[in-house]
Design brief:
There is one protein chain. By secondary structure, this protein is an alpha/beta fold. α2 runs antiparallel to α5 and α9 crosses α10. The protein is globular and about 75 Å long. The structure holds NADP nicotinamide-adenine-dinucleotide phosphate. Keywords: NADP, Oxidoreductase.
Length: 460
């Protein structure tokens, strides 16, 4: 059974859910398509009343929503509360700004006049991951519903209670039936949904493997898609960086959400002049983290999202070591109940090691030493991924130079890769294509229509 809620801190099964039958799925798709016919003609103000209300409800229910998340996927409770509040802000942001973002834009042809209109295209299918169970849903619901589309969403199998809670937020906010629909469906049913003629666009956030599969299905059906996939972000420290500042962000950037973040700092690329100091201090800081119940605010190291996630990560570390990597610290599961992993640092990862091109989705950092800025950029770019990245330096010009030279969708100077409602989020290469959030996020699934007025006689 795919949709099962396990507490990864204890291994206890909390709840399980049946998948939809094909008949039930058909009824939900029909409702979403029917709802689109009225929703697309609804004013921005009327849409905003519902989406803004959903934001308010997220805020009001933050405590209970955060607890559900912590129980289902192990996020530490303070981080979980922060995620719910951020999701509320995303809904409010699009409720406030959608009309401006989608306003007609004038064009300036040599003759006559013209403009671009933005209009909704239909039912959008979202496929979303467990690592940010509400934020990921808000990232598609806020923009695409405010644009006038309707949404059907397949959430990850391990967070069914979060999926249901988010759908209820929309319903309680006054969403008409079919506006936002949670689908507990199999991968095969998901392929059928992508191919269904009522679906007009597909937004996936997940692994590269899922991206290849869903993007191929969308391509076959000629549907526009956006792919927000994995990352192996570089965390570059130049020799003139403020080391104390960089160290704090290094710990946060690798360990937030127990390392299970697409844009987490994963490859630490350190100038050789400061590499020994950085490595010693980083190891010491990771060594102070205390595993415990993620519902307890005092806990500084939570579990991974599931037992399988832990086993996969341990296997990846083993493969890295077999190919010559050295384990500077950690590398094993913690000797306690639940799916906990020791904070881990790998060094000596050479380009022929599979780990060099791997995304470690958990508390595993790789440290590399480089001789200068150019070598740091070259190493950062020697990756199949291209999501985010960061550079720490005391020289603003060097920061900008590195930010421009690294081949990713996002670069951050003296800070880690992060996200805000206003900032377009997304990557290049195997990290996918398209952008979510910001103005760009709402443009993803709208028809950009040219309308031209010109008074000219047809040629004789
Ligand atoms: P995943 O296994 O790819 O799952 C993501 C979603 O895709 C889940 O809903 C999953 O459903 C579904 N899925 C997977 N294969 C599918 C298929 N063949 N057909 C239909 N649906 C399919 O990824 P994950 O392990 O949950 O999430 C971690 C990955 O997401 C990491 O690589 C991370 O970097 C990436 N991520 C990227 C971003 C970004 O914005 N770029 C943000 C967050 C996470 P089931 O659970 O039912 O398999």
């Amino acid at each position: 059974m795919t949709y099962q809620s396990f507490n990864p801190a204890t291994g206890t099964l909390l709840k399980k859910f049946e998948e939809l039958t094909d008949t039930q799925l058909e009824a939900k798709l029909a409702k979403a398509a029917e709802c689109f016919l009225t929703w697309k003609a609804t004013s921005y103000d009327a849409r905003a009343a519902i989406i803004a209300k959903a934001g308010v409800l997220l805020h009001e229910r933050a405590e209970e929503l955060a607890e559900t998340m912590t129980l289902e996927m192990g996020k530490r409770i303070d981080e979980a509360r922060g995620e719910v509040e951020f999701s509320a802000r995303i809904m409010a942001y699009y409720a406030t700004n959608a009309e401006t973002f989608l306003a007609d834009t004038p064009l300036y042809p040599e003759q006559g006049e013209g403009h671009m209109e933005s209009s909704p295209i239909g039912v959008i299918f979202g496929v979303e991951p467990w690592n940010f169970p509400y934020y990921q849903l808000a990232r598609v619901a806020g923009p695409h519903l405010m644009a006038g589309n309707t949404l059907v969403v397949k959430h990850a199998g391990c967070v069914p209670q979060c999926a249901i809670a988010f759908e209820k937020i929309l319903t309680d906010a006054g969403a008409p039936e079919g506006l936002y629909t949670n689908l507990m469906i199999s991968h095969d049913q998901s392929d059928a949904v992508v191919a269904d003629p009522r679906i007009k666009g597909v937004a996936l956030t997940g692994s590269v493997a899922a991206g290849r599969s869903i993007a191929a299905a969308a391509g076959k059906a000629l549907k526009p898609s956006s792919m927000e996939l994995g990352g192996a972000d570089a965390f570059i420290v130049l020799k003139d960086a403020d080391m104390e500042h960089a160290l704090k962000w290094a710990v946060w950037g690798r360990m937030y959400n127990t390392g299970q973040t697409c844009c987490a700092a994963k490859r630490f690329i350190i100038a050789e002049e400061v590499a020994d100091q950085f490595t010693t201090d980083f190891q010491a800081a990771l060594g102070t983290l205390e595993a415990g119940d993620p519902l307890d605010s005092a806990t500084t190291l939570g579990p991974l999202s599931s037992e399988q996630a832990l086993l996969d990560l341990l296997e990846q570390v083993d493969v890295a070591v077999k190919h010559g990597a050295k384990v500077l610290m950690g590398g094993k599961r913690l000797n306690r109940p639940g799916s906990y992993m020791q904070p881990t640092i790998l060094t000596d990862v050479t380009p022929d090691n599979p780990a060099f091109r791997t995304e470690f989705f958990g508390p595993v950092a790789m440290i590399f030493r480089v001789k200068d800025e150019a070598a740091a950029v070259a190493l950062a770019n020697d990756s199949d991924f291209g999501l985010g990245g960061s550079v720490f330096t005391g020289d603003e010009a060097a920061g900008r130079r590195v930010a421009s030279a690294v081949e990713t969708g996002m670069m951050f100077i003296n800070n880690i890769s992060w996200t805000d409602a206003e900032l377009p989020f997304g990557g290049i290469k195997d990290s996918g294509y398209g952008r979510e959030l910001g103005d760009m996020g709402i443009q993803q699934f709208v028809n950009k229509k040219l309308v031209r007025t010109i008074k000219a006689d047809a040629p004789a």
